[in-house]
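Figure 2 data, in text form.
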Amino acid sequence: MPDLGLTGARVLVVGGASGIGLACARAFAQEGARVGVLSRSAASVERALAGELSPHRDALETGVVDVRDDDALGAAVQHLAGRLGGLDHVVVSAGVDGEFGAGVQEVTRAGFRDVLEVNVAAAFSAVQHACPHLRRSPAPSVTFVGSDSGFVTAPGMIAYGASKGALVQLTRVLAHELSADLLPDPAAGSGIRVNSVCPSITDTPMARRGLGVDDFTGAGYPVNSADDVAWAVLFLSSPRSRAVNGVSLLSDFGYSGRSSFPA
């Protein structure tokens, strides 16, 4: 297996106790990284520690926070960064789907705002709070877990699609803002790379709940596993991908490249 250069890395995974975030936390730990896991519920953390993360407990630090609360998020990032001895990589996987299936007239302003608050504003805040630690790393990175909904649309996903489109542009903006030539002291570090992974439907509890299915057997279309996405996150975080910055990587089996022209 190729060396991704992640042994001993200090990684924070926001939303790391379920779904794609959990797969990322496990994958980083398997690579020999030390991992801080933030989740909005103590119950999800306990389930993860008793289940998929059980073999890696010695490499883990955990915390509970509602990412909508910026002060609490800042305190949680600071606490886990201290427990890990700093940060080299941040993965933001926390997200909500909102009023899934609602049409234009049914989506509420409060529901729309909440999706943007969690999927966009909190993602930005997590990076803000992590930046002082990342700037002290020799090869820091941020990776957002986005969605192909940032590029294509489907009925009933208005707020979710808007939020994931915003995350694509946030990736570009932060990649530019945090590049080495814009750091106050370029000699202090190489800049912070910022990328995102944008999968199509992924087999997670949130996707099953949103689509009202028990599993994706016989779905009639390809479905990402959480591990598929985690491998892409590992690559983008790895110093082996040091030239990759500002990229929103589609993981959709090529579907977005297909023309609808009937020929």
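Caption note: Strands lie at 10-14, 34-39, 60-64, 89-92, 141-145, 193-199, 248-251.
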